UniProtKB/TrEMBL annotation:
It comes from Bactrocera dorsalis. It comes from the Eukaryota. It holds the Pfam family DUF4806. This is DUF4806 domain-containing protein. Residues 39-117 form the DUF4806 domain.
Length: 123
């Protein structure tokens, strides 16, 4: 519980720093990008389902894809990107197909649409 509180505090500080940097460089602050950055990595099943609901909006999905492409950079490591999207605690509750009473990772829109397009769609 204490660790989650610390993570939230760090995310708030990062958001403030990002806004300050944007003001100094003259960039527009993209509130959707800031919202995405503050929610990742997802650490609960409820957070993952909430993200899926948000991804049904085309604008949010497009912004999320841009965010993931920035995380991905020139790397082709799905592993590294997954670790920045989901915590180990959440991934422990999932597997690809949802066997054994676990949640199917392949059914999350963040994986099936956004992550897939970020790696396969940009070939």
């Amino acid at each position: 519980m204490e660790q989650q509180k610390t993570v939230r505090e760090c995310k708030v500080l990062i958001r403030k720093i990002h806004q300050s940097v944007c003001r100094m460089t003259g960039e527009d602050v993209d509130n959707v990008q800031t919202e995405i950055a503050s929610t990742l990595p997802l650490n609960t099943l409820a957070a993952a389902l909430e993200m899926d609901e948000k991804l049904k909006c085309d604008e949010f999905a497009a912004t999320t894809k841009q965010f993931i492409l920035r995380i991905k950079g020139t790397s082709d490591s799905v592993h590294d990107v997954l670790r920045s999207l989901y915590t180990d605690e959440l991934l422990y509750l999932c597997n690809w197909d949802g066997r054994g009473g676990k949640q199917p990772l392949s059914k999350f829109l963040l994986v099936s649409n956004i992550l897939y397009d970020s790696f396969i769609g940009n070939v």
